[in-house]
Amino acid sequence: MIIDCHHHLLAENWYKKSLLKDIATNILGPLVKDRLTEDEYNNPEIFYERVYQNVFDETGDLLVKNMKEAGVDKTCIFSFDAELTRGVAEVSIDEQNEKIAVAASKYPEKLIPFYSINPRQNKAVERFKYGLRNLGMKGIKLHPPLGGFLPSDDICYPIYRACMEHGVPVIFHTGSLQPIPSSDIAHPSHVEKVALDFPRLPIILAHFSLTSWEDALRLASKYSNLYFDFSLLFLTYLENPTEAYRRLRKFLDEIGPERVFWGTDGPFYNDIFPTKRWVKTIKSPDPSIYANITFSNKEIDLIMGNAFANLLNIV
């Protein structure tokens, strides 16, 4: 079973255009520059259109089509709440969560819905519990930099207690990601108190914590309830394939494949590193690239989906 544990559904009116432009310019722009003509790259409107041409998909239809082409069995889907830091868009975070649930109900065998809310929002825990009870949500995705909070803040604790009550995990964005302000908020060290106070709460640190991956790994050696997804590791692969495999191997050696999950952070990077290619990169790697770094078939099966399925009790 192949499961993408990290994928965003979104539409253009889910977020303020200023945020989408920041993401396009500062995060995606440098990665697509070689694919655009000079005129396309320097024209703000054309550049924006090209960057997002295969991204917006609030129904999940494009995602499921892409999954079929890539051989992915299931995908965990969610939004992210930027309302308190970047403004309320045309479609509110509550409406976004409803649309996530609708997409999952349309493709119940394919899509796994997670809730998204800023713990600083009014009645955040009540809204989250509504999602668990009425929308079929299977967990929650929290984005500290976009929300302006630390995972260790007291205001977050009712969310964690709700997760414990319903037996669901929490995913944190971790690692520095420009142009989002206060990127230190996303350092994995801020999750330590949560891991200590909620030792039975499954906590997933997204993206291997990006450039803070060594700090994250040291933390995981202390707390067995810390898990990781390695979405965005393909960005390292694009620069240095051997380093990407070496880093993955180190995580598996340190904490085991049962706590490491494959993901894409789609759809933002679908044109930069297609899902089908990312699947092949892990399931059928080129031995000339990773030299003496090896992965067993059992390890690959676990990180590509079986481990995440075990965590969520997916048969």
Topology diagram in text:
Blueprint: E1 3-8, H1 17-32, H2 38-42, H3 44-51, H4 61-70, E2 74-78, H5 83-86, H6 93-106, E3 111-113, E4 115-116, H7 124-134, E5 140-142, H8 144-147, H9 157-166, E6 170-172, H10 192-197, E7 203-205, H11 213-220, E8 226-229, H12 233-239, H13 241-255, E9 260-261, H14 275-283, H15 287-290, H16 297-312
Going by CATH, the architecture would be Alpha-Beta Barrel
User: What is the radius of gyration computed over CA atoms, rounded to a whole number of angstroms?
Assistant: 18 Å
Would you identify the CATH H-level superfamily? Metal-dependent hydrolases
**Beta fraction:** 5-15%
- Count the domains: 1
| Broad CATH class | Alpha Beta
The secondary structure category is: alpha/beta
Sheet with the most strands: spatial strand order: 4-5-6-7-8-9
General shape: globular
- Largest β sheet strand count, sense and barrel closure: 6 strands, parallel
Terminal Cα span: 10 Å
Tell me roughly what share of residues is in helical segments: 40-55%
The residue-averaged pLDDT reads 93
Order of helices and strands: EHHHHEHHEEHEHHEHEHEHHEHHH
The CATH topology is what?
A: TIM Barrel
- Got a strand count? 9
Uncertain regions spanning at least 5 consecutive residues: none
Helix segment tally:
16
